Amino acid sequence: MTRIRPRSKVWLSSDSPGSTFGRGKWLLLNAIDREGSLRAAAAALGISYRKAWGDLRTAEEFLGVKLVERRRGGNVGGEMYLTNNGKKWASEFGRLQSAVENALEEAFASWMEGKD
Q: pTM, whole model, 2 decimals?
């Protein structure tokens, strides 16, 4: 028998069209933190550098905080790292996402009990 599980997507939005922060931008922040550059983060996620750069700019504008610091590196390339705000957003959005998933699992289990 196939196991049925609930799924959901968590994102933050505003009244402005196209302004959101969700799993994709969260994954990008985590990849930047792990990889140390936007180019390496984009490659690790399988997205273009242009998309990653656009998503990062959109996230900073939407949240109203600077999420990353950039350091140019000349011939050897630059580096990018999360600011304290970037680390906080990456951590807290991950925590929110986990809390929603746990609540959904609990609600689904309770609902399934009533189905028997």
A: 0.86
